[in-house]
Specification:
CATH class of the largest domain: Alpha Beta
CATH superfamily of the largest domain: Dihydrodipicolinate Reductase, domain 2
Structural class: alpha/beta
Oligomer: single chain
Shape: globular
Radius of gyration: 21 Å
Distance between the termini: 60 Å
Number of domains: 2
Number of helices: 11
Number of strands: 15
Order of helices and strands: HEEHEHEHEHEHEHEHHEEEEEEEHH
Length: about 375
């Protein structure tokens, strides 16, 4: 009786959350040997995830040897260290190279690795030039190896659960996605990130361009309109405020970023389909509560893990599974170029004030 009253009042009754495969899926075997190129600030998150999963990292490379040694001593004491990435590429016992360098030097490293028939996991954002990205994807295919991108947000628990709800057709055809993030990114003022012209739209928002691409599935975006502005009180040089609208023939997505939110940080995702709505919200990217509301009722799953734990494990695990199963990984370079094209279009739109067709901007400068 209470469920009937709730339905008449427009309140969905609580139901059991469906079991969905949102967690990273481990490979059947874990014998592939990994080499990490680039031991900067993001490297500990990679290595911590690999160590937890029992993956074999046998070599670490960084142009400053002390950084490689620090990562070795903390995570993989038996790993070799070096300053020249070519030493890792030349090793017969390394199957996969995790390339975690900055984008400018990354292309040459990835190309050399692919020519040596090594599988590659590239750091995000993948490339600064779509032509280069397409060329690298084709080179991987020609050499019979896989090239994936570390879009770790795909395995953030809240994003992953919503994605799997869409894949299970719980929401029906998705027509709208609205995502907003309010947080404090002023710490970047004291780092090299302060030199990036579009820090938010490029380095940060690439995760949101990517997850919107996943949510919207096969829908092709037709236009992107974006704007960026400086907050009156921000410390960083690049604009910390940005908004993006992505148009589809039969849908719309919007992204809002306020990286100068010093109090009351909040993150929210709303995805609307013909038969249901998914919502996630919380004070930060790692603390999120998800609800799925359909005709059947409202489900609130209890999710395991957090963005960084699940995300960095997910990207490598998916690549290892794809190697075993002889298929392209979900986070393949070609799929990620769809996300990159949204990012490039948004940056061009913010610079010109005009809407931009995704794919027409082939290259960006930072």
């Amino acid at each position: 009786m209470s469920n009937d009253r709730e339905c008449r009042a427009g309140i969905a009754p609580d139901i059991e959350a469906p079991a969905l495969p949102y967690l990273p899926r481990p490979p059947q075997g874990s014998g592939k040997k990994i080499g990490l190129i680039g031991c900067g600030g993001i490297a500990p998150y990679h290595l911590r995830a690999y160590l937890k999963a029992g993956y074999h990292v046998v070599a670490l490379c960084n142009t400053t040897l002390a950084k490689a040694e620090l990562m070795r001593d903390e995570f993989y004491p038996n790993a070799a260290v070096c300053t020249d990435y070519r030493e890792l590429i030349a090793r017969d016992d390394i199957d996969v190279l995790d390339v975690a360098t900055h984008p400018i030097e990354r292309v040459a490293i990835i190309e050399d690795a692919l020519r040596a028939r090594k599988h590659v996991l590239s750091q995000k954002p993948f490339v600064l030039d779509l032509h280069e990205g397409e060329r690298l994807a084709a080179l991987a295919e020609a050499n019979g190896v896989l090239l994936a991108v570390n879009q770790n947000g795909r395995w953030a628990p809240h994003f992953a659960y919503i994605r799997e709800a869409i894949n299970a057709d719980l929401l029906g055809e998705v027509t709208a996605a609205n995502l907003s993030v309010h947080w404090d990114h002023n710490w970047t003022a004291d780092t090299s990130f302060n030199n990036l012209r579009h820090l938010i739209l490029y380095d940060f928002a690439i995760h949101w361009f990517d997850i919107v691409t996943c949510f919207m599935g096969d829908k092709e975006p037709t236009r992107v309109y974006a704007s960026a502005a400086r907050s009156a009180h921000q410390r960083t040089a690049p604009p910390l405020l940005a908004k993006v609208t992505i148009e589809y023939d039969d849908g719309l997505a919007s992204l809002a970023f306020n990286a100068d939110t010093r109090y009351g940080a909040h993150d929210q995702t709303i995805v609307v389909g013909r038969h249901g709505t998914a919502m996630s919200s919380g004070p930060d990217l790692n603390t999120q509560s998800v609800t799925i509301t359909t005709d059947a009722g409202r489900a609130t799953p209890v999710l395991e893990g957090d963005w960084f734990t699940n995300g960095f494990l997910g990207t490598m695990s998916e690549l290892l599974c794809a190697i075993e199963e002889q298929r392209q990984p979900y986070n393949s370079a070609r799929h990620n170029l769809r996300s990159a094209s949204l990012c490039f279009a948004a940056i061009e739109s913010a610079d010109t004030g005009n809407p931009v067709v995704p794919g027409t901007v082939r290259r960006i400068t930072l």
